[in-house]
Specification:
It is a single chain. This protein is α/β, with parallel strands linked by helices. The chain has three domains: about 10-105 and about 180-455, Glycosidases (TIM Barrel, Alpha-Beta Barrel), CATH 3.20.20; about 110-165, Oligo-1,6-glucosidase, domain 2 (Alpha-Beta Complex); about 470-545, Golgi alpha-mannosidase II (Immunoglobulin-like). It is about 25% helix and about 15% strand. The structure holds 1-deoxynojirimycin. 1-deoxynojirimycin (NOJ) binds next to loops.
């Protein structure tokens, strides 16, 4: 049997911070780096090993920092480079590493490269971006931006179109240009030298694009660019690298994450996160999740990357709605369902990611008015859908479920004014449920979601079966139970989750005489008889199984 080489990030749990909404230390209504420093002890208590810091670089904030105008400086809203150095020192003191967001598919249109590039067709930076002549006085082709509308914008000065897969203020970089790639390697090495522990790579599967052939993801040179990046930057360091890849399949995930190929450690794949939309349509075209499909997709990934490559495990990030509102029950079973979803995910093989607020069961914001949504994507899609004849009601319903702002409301620290997030006016409306869903309440309640996450994290540190055990799905056809085993050299874990509210029973298909111990459960009196496990609403249990002689 092929054994994988053990790495520190196999055993780590990562916590994503969206800095604008995390904690505001200076009362300007915007979360900042000092605010993160002040909350490091909270994160230490939770037990996480690594922070993934969403962008803190200089940016005009058209897309909340995913439009970078200077990779080498910190946006003043967030603080200074000294604050950043301090954050590294203070987190390292607590044994916490920091990985940075690397946004190199595009820059801001305010980046000096683009400002130069626009000056003339023969400017040395022109070719850092992707330009095409008009065709019949129009866009060169029909390529669409992910934020709605054409992917091409016209530059009046030089009479050419430039490509942008996101807003027109986020021009795409031209990865064919070697100088451009070298500029990126230099920038990455600057951050590595500062002591960061790796990168989360924004939409990295787009860098090999071929716009004339309508190829966005998985372009022909994608993997050679990543190998070149590896060789020129982090290859000889022990860092964590994770690519955001909406177009990943199990086959190409191995290309990215097989250590022999020298590219990345793992990717975020999104196949499971797209099961509640109508296939082939946009995520606003809603469809109910089928548990059997979720089991099939997640299991496919578990099987495929068991011996080659590595999975990342997540339900949430700053682009996705809150999982407890999406696939749990954010009303009467908020606590049970949040814990069930955590059990299901953290029981699997891979590196788990927690998004800020998930550990206290924060819910979707579901604002009533389009004016309360700040996100450029939501605003653009609203206009596009109204123009296409969708009803206001239909559009808003999709936003309640899927808008990115659901995940971006300020972190709920306490029941004080503005949820204790800021002493000033928060940059974004709070979720009105903060008086009862907040960190302070969670820390005062031994049964809280927070302490459940804490236990799951501790368990991963002390249980190699949880880290390296092989996964096997049980009962794929069952419509309401997600059950699977993990096995490492005969040591077995059984994970059983009732995904819904209605009670049900799980029959463990084993003929052996078994003795089981409960490692964790979201009910205090779960069944010890593992042959017939009666499950209440959203009940979830991890058993350690011993085979009696
Ligand atoms: C993915 C990021 O997660 C998202 O927030 C951003 O809008 C796009 N990439 C463009 O950078």
């Amino acid at each position: 049997m092929k054994e994988i080489q053990q790495k520190w990030w196999h055993k780590s749990v990562i916590y994503q911070i969206y800095p604008r909404s995390f904690y505001d230390s200076n009362g300007d209504g915007i979360g900042d780096i000092n605010g993160i420093i002040l909350k490091l002890d909270y994160l230490k208590k939770l037990g996480i090993d690594v922070i993934w810091l969403s962008p803190v670089y200089e940016s005009p904030n058209i897309d909340n920092g995913y439009d970078i105008s200077d990779y080498y400086s910190i946006l003043s809203d967030f603080g200074t480079m000294n604050d950043m150095n301090e954050l590294l020192i203070e987190s390292h003191k607590r044994g916490i590493r920091i990985i940075m967001d690397l946004v190199v598919n595009h820059t801001s249109d305010q980046h000096k490269w683009f400002i130069e590039a626009k000056k003339s067709k023969d400017n040395p930076y022109r070719d850092y971006y992707i330009w095409r002549d008009p065709v019949n006085n129009k866009e060169p082709n029909e390529l669409k931006s992910n934020f709605g509308g054409s992917a091409w914008s016209f530059d009046e000065e030089t009479h050419q179109y430039y490509l942008h897969f996101y807003s027109k203020q986020q021009p795409d970089l031209n990865w064919e240009n070697e100088n451009m790639r070298n500029s990126i390697w230099n920038m990455m090495n600057f951050w590595i030298d500062k002591g960061i522990s790796g990168f989360r790579m924004d939409v990295i599967d787009l860098i090999g694009k071929k716009p004339d052939e309508y190829i966005k993801e998985n372009g022909p040179k994608l993997h050679s660019y990543l190998h070149e990046m590896y060789k020129n930057t982090f290859g000889d360091k022990d860092l964590l690298t994770v690519g955001e890849t909406w177009g990943a399949t199990t086959e190409n995930a191995k290309l990215y994450s097989d250590p022999k190929r020298e590219e990345l450690n793992m990717v975020f794949q999104f196949e499971h996160m797209q099961l509640d939309k109508i296939p082939g349509k946009q995520r606003w075209d809603l469809k109910k999740l089928e548990l059997r499909e979720l089991k099939q997709v997640l299991s496919k990934w578990q099987y495929a990357l068991d011996k080659e490559g590595w999975n990342s495990l997540f339900w949430n990030n700053h682009d996705l709605p809150r999982i407890v509102s999406r696939w749990g029950n954010d009303r009467e079973y908020r606590i049970e369902s949040a814990k069930m979803l955590a059990t299901l995910l953290h029981g699997m093989k891979g590196t788990p990611y927690i998004y800020q607020g998930e550990e206290i069961g924060m819910t979707n914001a579901a604002f009533n008015s389009i004016d309360d949504y700040i996100d450029i994507e939501t605003q653009n899609i609203y206009k596009e859908r109204i123009a296409a004849g969708f009803s206001e009601e239909e559009i808003m319903k999709a936003f309640y479920m899927k808008a990115r702002d659901n995940a971006r409301t300020p972190m709920q620290w306490s029941d004080e004014i503005h949820a204790g997030f800021s002493k000033g006016n928060p940059w974004m409306k709070l979720n009105p449920n903060y008086p009862f869903i907040n960190v302070e309440n969670a820390l005062n309640d031994p049964d809280s979601i927070f302490y459940y996450y804490q236990s799951l994290i501790t368990m991963r540190k002390n249980n190699d079966t949880l880290v390296y055990g092989t996964y096997r799905l049980l009962d794929p056809e069952d419509e309401s139970i997600y059950a699977y085993e993990r096995d490492l050299g005969g040591k077995k874990l059984l994970i059983v989750c009732n995904f819904y509210e209605d009670p049900t029973t799980f029959y463990y298909p084993s003929s052996c005489n078994l003795k089981a111990k409960i490692l964790i459960s979201n009910y205090s009196d779960s069944s010890l008889d593992i042959k017939t496990i009666k499950l209440r609403a959203y009940e979830a249990i991890i058993y350690e199984i011993n085979y009696k002689q």
